[in-house]
Write a structure and sequence with these properties.
Largest sheet of chain A: 3 strands, antiparallel
Order of helices and strands of chain B: HEHEEHEEHEEHHEHEEHHH
Number of strands of chain B: 10
Order of helices and strands of chain A: EEHHHHHHHEHH
Shape of chain A: elongated
Distance between the termini of chain B: 14 Å
Shape of chain B: globular
Strand order of the largest sheet of chain A: 1-2-3
Distance between the termini of chain A: 7 Å
Strand content of chain A: under 5%
Radius of gyration of chain B: 26 Å
Number of helices of chain A: 9
Structural class of chain B: alpha+beta
Strand order of the largest sheet of chain B: 8-1-10-9
Oligomer: heterodimer
Helix content of chain B: 25-40%
Chain lengths: 221, 336
């Protein structure tokens, strides 16, 4: 594992790119997805100079499709890349729910924070939550794309369900993003921030908070 | 990573290919062949005289009588569509029969058109065209519009939120909105939703039970034919050939199950209708559709890129295999 003086490499370029391409495509999907409802016209956002296209469904739908293609590409890349490399650090483990409770309590000054691996238990849970929500949105989204084709017509019940699940999935993704970003309200999590931009994390921080991971990478040197 | 072999890599590639490919599983589900006869209509403009001897054309009266029990009964104090200072309330104008409203799902347009040195007065019954691939049903954000196996496009009035997107994406702006009624009242009526959308459903309850639509039954001049869609297409072509006339509805919006036959080109009819609309008190109001010839289906551009989207996961897998192989062989950064 990479080690540069007082910094430790936490993420490779691949992970950083996947994170930001996912963030970008998801943001565009949410934005253009809201455009699929007659929301921007009602709230007159389309009257802002340069934004008249917001209420043009033919434009926002095509943007939604291209952003969906980007998200599908990056999600499959992510899954295949880490399965091939057998990297499963972010998958939830037994007891993560309880451990997350301890971490959150410790943030508020109650009790000691447990020793952490590369990712905190709450990060592993958040990953699974956002990941599964994205899979739900992608699968139902593909079914919706197929539905729009001229020769494919679903039953009334099936259409209703996939649309409902697509909308619920979107809502879950938004909750996931809010919680993900909300974690950075707490100062304890700030040292994690540079990692997702530069890949590097402060060595002292890792030693103090991610003891399990630190010992593992120190042992492999 | 030094003992990492090509064979091991290929083994993992297959396993992960399955994992990544999960995104694509179960997705090629096409709608099952329903085995139901698809229905259609022919509206023969050489036959319709707009029931000149009646105050209201028979097709319009019969439609209103048949559907009266489904007309909206809105609440008394209807809110505006905040932050806009307007709402669509037709409840005090229920008597209107010369355009599409939530209380009038079909009407007859009268146009005078000159063609080949001859003046024609045409009467055109208008209502939902029941498109083959209706953008209204495809793009409804809550999927409460459905293309039924028999062909009619039907709105679920119990679940409609009244956002009116269906009207925006319809080339003829057919669905009409009534505020102050529907499910949106139970959620956040000030901020979201606008009522319920209403339009012709080709008397779906009747046709499903083997009957015929009320307007077809009521027409005193047999100007509207109803039957199997392909039979209707043949009939429309035959009639157009017979009179040396023109067809509308066969290719518009990607195809519909309503075929108009006219002795004059529809380009001229469309132009005359637009001129008429421009002279109305509120020309911007929907409910008085033109007849744009060859109008494109709004989903066409998106559908054009739908299949190329399938390349995305394949590209993702290929890039991952390449990147993983490179890093595992020892080249480049291998921090996951």
């Amino acid at each position: 594992m990479s080690d540069n003086g007082n910094k430790i490499t936490r993420h490779g370029l691949s992970v950083i790119l996947v994170h930001w391409v996912t963030a970008l495509s998801t943001f565009v999907l949410i934005f253009s997805g809201f455009g699929q409802m007659p929301l921007y016209k009602r709230y007159m956002l389309d009257q802002i100079p340069g934004l008249s296209w917001l209420s043009d469904f033919s434009v926002t739908l095509v943007i939604h499709y291209w952003a969906a293609a980007l998200l599908m590409a990056v999600v499959t890349y992510h899954l295949v890349f880490h399965v091939l490399r057998r990297e499963f650090d972010m998958l939830p483990r037994k007891g993560d729910l309880r451990e997350s409770g301890h971490i959150i309590m410790a943030t508020f000054g109650f009790g000691e924070e447990p020793e952490n691996d590369k990712y905190l238990a709450e990060q592993r849970l958040a990953y699974a939550f956002i990941g599964l929500s994205l899979v739900l949105v992608i699968v139902t989204g593909i079914l919706k794309v197929l539905k729009n084709l001229p020769y494919i017509n679903y039953s009334e019940g099936f259409s209703l369900w996939i649309t409902l699940l697509h909308n619920i999935g979107t809502f879950l993704v938004i909750i996931g993003i809010v919680v993900h970003l909300g974690a950075f309200i707490f100062k304890a999590n700030w040292p994690l921030l540079p990692g997702i931009f530069t890949g590097k994390t402060d060595r002292e921080y890792v030693k103090r908070r991610h003891g399990i991971w630190y010992r593992r990478i120190a042992g492999t040197k | 990573m030094s003992d990492f072999s090509r064979r091991e890599f290929l083994k993992r590639s297959v396993a992960s290919g399955v994992a990544g490919g999960l995104v694509l599983t179960g997705l090629n589900r096409s709608a099952e062949a329903s085995g139901v006869d698809v229905l259609g209509t022919v509206i023969d403009l050489t036959r319709c005289d707009g029931c000149r001897d009646l105050q209201t054309p028979a097709c319009v009266t019969s439609c209103r009588d048949k559907n009266e029990s489904r007309f909206p009964e809105p609440i008394k104090d209807i809110e505006n569509y905040w932050p806009q200072k307007k709402k669509e309330d037709w409840s005090k104008k229920r008597e209107i029969t010369d355009r599409l409203t939530p209380y009038n799902w079909t009407f007859v347009q009268e146009v005078r058109v000159e063609h080949a040195g001859k003046d024609h007065t045409l009467y055109i019954q208008r209502r939902c065209m029941h498109c083959d691939n209706p953008p209204c049903a495809d793009l409804c954000p809550f999927s409460v519009l459905h293309k039924m196996p028999e062909g009619p496009v039907v709105i679920d009035q119990d679940l409609c939120f009244g956002g009116a997107k269906c009207r925006t994406v319809c080339p003829w702006s057919v669905p009409a909105r009534q505020a102050g009624v529907g499910i949106y009242l139970n959620i956040a009526p000030t901020f979201a939703g606008g009522g319920v959308m209403y339009k012709c459903d080709l008397c779906y309850d009747r046709v499903k039970a083997g009957g015929i639509p009320a307007c077809v039954e009521a027409c005193p001049r047999n100007a509207i034919s109803f039957g199997g869609k392909e039979e209707m297409r043949t009939l429309a072509h035959g009639r157009a050939e017979e009179i040396g006339g023109y067809l509308y509805g066969e290719r518009e919006n990607g195809g519909t199950s309503t075929f108009y036959v006219s002795p004059v080109p529809f380009e001229k009819i469309h132009a005359a209708l637009l001129k008429q609309k421009a002279k109305q008190a509120k020309p911007g109001l929907p409910g008085f559709p033109g007849m744009p010839v060859g109008v494109e289906n709004m989903t066409e551009t998106a559908n054009g890129i739908a299949w190329s989207m399938a390349i995305a996961p394949v590209a993702g897998i290929a890039a991952a295999v390449g990147a993983a192989y490179k890093t595992m062989k020892g080249g480049g950064d291998d921090v996951g």
